[in-house]
Design goal:
The protein has 269 residues and is of the alpha/beta class. The model is unreliable at 198-204 (pLDDT under 50). The protein is globular. The N and C termini lie far apart (54 Å). The chain folds into two domains: 26-205, 5'-nuclease (Rossmann fold), CATH 3.40.50.1010; 211-265, no CATH class. The chain has a five-stranded parallel beta sheet with strand order 5-4-3-6-7, sandwiched between helices. Strands 8-9-10 form a three-stranded antiparallel beta sheet, with no helix packed on it. The protein has helices spanning 58-63, 65-69, 80-89, 91-102, 129-148, 161-169, 177-183, 187-190, 224-233, and strands at residues 2-10, 16-24, 52-56, 76-79, 108-111, 153-157, 174-175, 240-243, 250-255, 260-265. Helices cover 31% and strands 20% of the residues. The protein has nine helices and ten strands. Bound molecules: zinc ion. Zinc ion (ZN) binds next to loops. One of its GO terms (molecular function) is 3'-5'-RNA exonuclease activity. Residues 52-165 form the PIN domain. InterPro entries: NA-bd_OB-fold, PIN-like_dom_sf, PIN_dom, RNR_Ribonuclease.
């Protein structure tokens, strides 16, 4: 099956040319589950007795790669739409994810949802690329659910409230990172979760950091990926902002590691 997209563009020399992009859709992309009755299972990488197959959205991969690298997390389907988004946002996380996918000790399977005839989705009019990609993730999760029947639970992990809500409406089980990790009953894993920079923001409220969904109150000082890697490397420290109730222009940030309080004065409007 062939999907083609054509558009007209002007060259540097001022000529107007028609560009046709062809996107081939295939029906021989397999699901990666060794117990599947339909697919070729020679290249299957998921566990033969997996009870849950995890599909993580892009932001979960970008922020929780430490968690994904933990051996407690396995039987993960990495969608090609997620892989592409991660590649464009953070090459270091992308390389770590690819390493997981090629590690024979781990059960991470890359599913080319963007090339599968049943999971490719076209962008709808008025839809942002991010919303289209979130929909592609939900469509792929639903495909897995229908494809594998009741043999296994397919779980979408997302901290994007809207994505989670829509998934549940579509009948796809969906959980936040925190609630999924809590359900595993391994408290030590909770320490591996990267919390959003402000302690006042719960995981449920974590912002979607991709451009069109960003709700900017103040401009960011640093990109989120840099902040997270800086926190890990000990370059940055995280603390709770406590504003003086009598003077809103004075605030403290308590930083445990440094055993000190940082005084901040002034305000930004
Ligand atoms: Zn299959």
């Amino acid at each position: 099956m062939l999907q083609s997209k054509s558009f007209v563009k002007k060259t540097k020399q001022g000529k107007v040319v028609k560009v046709v992009r062809e996107h081939y859709l295939r029906d021989d992309i397999y699901c990666g589950a060794p117990f599947c009755k339909v697919c070729d299972v020679a290249a299957a990488r998921l566990g033969s007795s997996a009870s849950t197959i995890i599909i993580a959205d892009t932001n979960v991969v970008l922020h929780q790669i430490d968690l994904l690298e933990n051996p407690a997390i396995d039987d993960v389907v990495v969608l090609s739409v997620v892989l592409e988004e991660v590649k464009n946002k953070n090459l270091s996380v992308y390389n770590r994810l690819r390493a997981l996918c090629s590690n024979p000790q781990r059960r991470f399977f890359v599913f080319s949802n963007e090339y599968h005839k049943d999971t490719y989705v076209k962008i709808e009019s008025g839809e942002t690329p991010n919303d289209r990609n979130d929909r592609a993730i939900r469509v792929a999760a639903q495909w897995y659910q229908n494809h594998l029947g009741g043999a296994v639970k397919v779980l979408l992990i997302t901290n994007d409230r809207e994505n989670k809500k829509k998934a549940i409406q579509d009948g796809i089980p969906a959980e936040t990172v925190e609630s999924y990790v809590k359900s595993l009953g391994q408290p030590a894993l909770l320490d591996v979760i990267v919390q959003p920079p402000s302690e006042d923001v719960t995981m449920e409220d974590a912002e979607d950091l991709r451009p069109s969904k960003r709700k900017t109150i103040y401009p960011e000082h640093k990109p989120m990926s840099e902040i997270i890697s800086g926190l890990h490397r000990g370059i940055y420290h995280q603390g709770k902002l406590r504003v003086n109730r009598y003077n809103p222009f004075e605030a403290y940030v308590g930083v445990k590691v440094l055993e000190m309080k940082l005084l901040s004065t002034g305000a930004q409007t």
